[in-house]
Amino acid sequence: MRTLYLSSFLLAPALASVALLGAPLAQAQGGPGGMGGPGREGQSSWGLGIAAVSGQEAYKGIERETRALPMLSYENRWFRLGGLGAEVKLPRLGISDTQSIDFRLVGKFNMDGYEAKDSTFLAGMNERKGGFWAGAKATWRNDVAHLSAEWTADVSSHSKGQRFNLSLEKNFRLGPQLMLSPRVGASWMDKKYVDYYFGVRSHEVQAGRAASTGTSGVNAELGLRSLYMIDPHHAVFLDLGVTRLAKSIKNSPLVERSTENRVLMGYLYRF
Fold first, then answer.
1. Minimal CA–CA distance to 125: which of 269, 252, 258?
2. What is the annotated signal peptide range for this record (predicted)?
3. What CATH code is carried by the domain that includes residue 125?
């Protein structure tokens, strides 16, 4: 069994999907977009479910991993908890009847990293740890799509890195029960982040594994989430995602793939 660290690509995006399901669920139920329970803005809402996730990471010697995950979420007017993170909702800026900008303070556990025992190719590498990241997020909501920008930094000081994410998502409602949400995104990582997780120190050099210093780069992601409402409380969902890695990551001697991919499917009950 691999360590929890190398499951980061599986765990973090998969569990984050719990929180992202809040707005589509509320919209599908006819309620406000992500502001509370079914039909009433500000009402607290709980979600509980289970999911299966299968993903392929880019590190050498790491095979595709599939596992089952519990899913838990909570949301009220000022707070959202889902997966590995939480958000504090700040006052919303209303632009018009159809446009607004939401501001959030965010905190999340980043499960990136590995141990030498996770792969024979990683033998002799020092452990790379995850940590707690914090920052801020803004989302422009309008009739066309939702555009989000998020900046976070490693406050646990393992990598001392920073990340900036941009994502664009559109919800298409196909009848009263089915919703499709395609998305596209880009994630910038500074050189400290890339060097910590994909660099090779001089004392870690071995035959076939040269020294490497990471530089900043941008990952690109495409994804599609489908949500089917069985009734106002029961839902099943499928989330597909593929990430094209930055050149600075693909060039790392620790990496053997240019992309990572993930399939997530599950069931969620919203109280």
1. 252
2. 1-28
3. 2.40.230
231 neighbors 269 (Cβ within 8 angstroms): no
Count structural domains, the chain: 1
The model carries a pTM of 0.85
pLDDT 10s digits, 140-177: 999 999 999 999 999 998 999 999 999 999 999 998 88
Q: Cα-flanking dihedrals φ and ψ of residue 18, to 5°?
A: -60, -50
Place of tokens 């669920």: 25
Q: Provide the pLDDT for residue 12.
A: 54
HSE, CB side, 13 Å, CA atoms: give it for residue 180.
Answer: 7
pLDDT at position 44, please?
A: 85
Cβ-in-10-Å burial (0-12, 13-18, 19+) of 267 comes to middle
Range of the domain at 245: 5-270
- Closest to 239 (Cα-Cα) out of 258, 262, 215: 262
Question: What whole-number distance in Å separates Cα of residue 4 and Cα of residue 165?
Answer: 24
CA 153/CA 157 separation, integer angstroms: 9
